[in-house]
Prior knowledge:
Layout: H1 2-20, H2 23-32, E1 89-91, E2 99-101, H3 124-137, E3 141-145, H4 150-156, E4 174-177
Amino acid sequence: MKKIKLCKSIFILLLLFLSSCNFNDLKDLKKKKIKVDKITRLEKDHFFDFNEPKQKKLEAYPFEENLENISKITKEYFRCKGNPLNPERIDESDPDNIKVYLDCEGSSKHSLPLMHNNKEGVYPILIDILNYIQKKTKKKVIITCGHRCPKHNQYSDFDSSAKLSKHLIGAEVDFYVEGYEQKYLEILN
């Protein structure tokens, strides 16, 4: 019984809705025969001026050096350059006690020396000096040896005095300046 009443009410609502539609409007639109023109534009037509965008060069922060194609030296350049693929080295200085040394695993297995606050790093003055040399010479500084872990230090230099090398604590650096390999004294000027 409830279903029949619900169906009747839906039918009545549908009739009311359809009777309120004005079908004359649709017939009028068909009689008017509205035309639609396609929009066409030639390739050379321009409706507004367009200037080519130009890339603006980012201004350097005050702490950045403005050296083109020369990256600023950071502590990352000082990482140990040991490599397990390096051949073994044999110390034959004492014939009675021949020693064989293997190189370390490289910087992926150990960090830079720990500085104050237990943060890894090297002496900041080294970084400042090398960046200053780059700025003055406008040439790239190549670090050949920065920090050495104890195993790489022993592999690099058999001498007993090398056990006290400042490379171990990040206070020494070996480097050269590109273009000044044979005239290194000119850098001092």
